[in-house]
Amino acid sequence: MTAQPPAAWRATAGRVVSRTLVRSLYSAEVHGREHVPATGPVVLAANHTGYLDGAVVHGLSPRPAHFLVLASTFERGIGPVLRHSGQIPLVQGTGSRQALMAALGVLERGGVVGIFPEGGRGRGDLARVEKGVAWLAVQGGAPVVPVACLGTRATGALADSWPRLRSRLVADFGAPVVLAEEDGTPGRVRLDRAAEEIRTALADHVTAASARHGIALPTDVPPDLWD
């Protein structure tokens, strides 16, 4: 694994593939595109319930993005597509440092990084988040745009299942979270505070978007969860 950021053109090409897939197979909607800053570094933080979340958020984002994706996913059939589209393999544990540094490189050149801060598929209610999203926002000086991804998995569906064809999928981008400077605050404390601020903003946005669009979150954790 390399800590070098992937080439920017790959995310642009990959977004075309994701958008074509999502819009041709599903009734896909995007809301709140105006909340994503047109230039400069941005972190897209989305809830995670279903297999197609990455394709939905990536394809419907107003800007190309490089998503942090579990390295095990690259070993599956979709691996070549992920590599070609400039997604960043994430090895959980000690290997996560390399992925975060590659993502930081994307932010430092003014690009967009996507992340599912819950760390895996579940109910998508943001009961907890990993601190990587806060680290990227702080180190990269980037606003965090909360994204509600809805409709990709129904209650009882398997972790790697696809939604019914032509079913309604929604990506709703919320108002950016800009973390305040905290001079003199210990790094670990600042990271904890930032992670909780992001978690709260994303949880509130997902709850509101779910109600607004009439698409409920699944009430279970997928029974064959592998990531």
TrEMBL record:
<dbReference type="Pfam" id="PF01553">
    <property type="entry name" value="Acyltransferase"/>
</dbReference>
<keyword id="KW-0012">Acyltransferase</keyword>
<dbReference type="InterPro" id="IPR002123">
    <property type="entry name" value="Plipid/glycerol_acylTrfase"/>
</dbReference>
<keyword id="KW-0808">Transferase</keyword>
<dbReference type="GO" id="GO:0003841">
    <property type="term" value="F:1-acylglycerol-3-phosphate O-acyltransferase activity"/>
</dbReference>
<dbReference type="GO" id="GO:0006654">
    <property type="term" value="P:phosphatidic acid biosynthetic process"/>
</dbReference>
<protein>
    <submittedName>
        <fullName>Glycerol acyltransferase</fullName>
    </submittedName>
</protein>
<feature type="domain" description="Phospholipid/glycerol acyltransferase">
    <location>
        <begin position="42"/>
        <end position="152"/>
    </location>
</feature>
